[in-house]
Amino acid sequence: MRARLLVFPIKGKKWCFSRSVDPFAAQSPSGVTPTTLRGLWKKISSESKPINANAELLVDFISDKMNKAWVGLEQAPDGSMKNKIHGFGLKLLARVKPSEIFLKSISKEVTSVQVTYPTSLDPRLVRRRLRHIAMSGTILHKKYLVGSVTLLPLTSAFMVLPLPNIPFFWVLFRTYSHWRALQGSEKLLKLISNQSNPQKPDSSDDADESKKNNSNLVKESQSPTCILLSSEELQQQIREAIEEGLDEASIVEICKSFHLNKNDVLKYRNLV
């Protein structure tokens, strides 16, 4: 699956990194992730998979439960305890950095990325900035993941209280979020680091080895994992931007044209 990424300056030296939301993208088939603990245990025990695959399955199971619980809070009546918890959760989510949201969007199903950027930017600089955000993500989210996992046993102690254990579920969410951001960082770094221009094999190589290398290089050149595309349309939309950055109206137009999440993009502009 190819992910379409958008990169452009949004305020001064601040750049926005976002993934386009494809309304026609195929959804993952239902039933892949178990819905019960019994089903999860049966799937893990009946299939011989590596530890990392079982870990992914466990994370997907927890994520599914968290999403259903969040939907339940969102649909709660106004003024109820669940509705207040949902409002408090929205305030906490507003503090999540946009770079984390971007890295989480690079899922394990992504096999290549198409990076769209304004014509005024150097493609080498765009690739370098993408590599920087991916490398930084692997370091930061690995550290935060360890910290979140460490806090889980401590916050679970609040389960004895008759109130909803908000600290535990928040730390659980942050653990999941850092896990996904770390996976996305490693995936993005791998995709943008692959060279799409084939290199000629050395003439001293064995004939069979040379033929094999040529075949692999042809395949790689036909299916590059990172495609950089300059966009005149995007350049026109940011042309009027000054040092103060793009205004909200300009950001809304860009989001409509390239199918971006407006709230995520605005976070880059408001980032201190």
TrEMBL record:
Protein origin, superkingdom: Eukaryota
Keyword flag Glycoprotein: no
Transmembrane regions listed in the UniProt entry: 151-173
GO cellular component: mitochondrial inner membrane
Pfam families: Mit_KHE1 (PF10173)
Ranges of compositional bias, category Polar residues: 213-223
Region (Disordered), start-end ranges: 194-223
Any one GO BP annotation for this protein: proton transmembrane transport
Keywords: Membrane, Transmembrane, Transmembrane helix
Record's keyword annotation contains Metal-binding: no
PANTHER family registered for this protein in UniProt: K+-H+ EXCHANGE-LIKE PROTEIN (PTHR28062), TRANSMEMBRANE PROTEIN (PTHR28062:SF1)
UniProt protein name: K+-H+ exchange-like protein
